[in-house]
Amino acid sequence: MADTRSLITGIALGVGATLAARNALPLLAPLARPAIKQSVKAALIGYERGREMAALLVETLSDIVAEVQVEMHAQNAAGADGRVES
Question: What is the DSSP letter of 66?
Answer without folding.
Answer: H
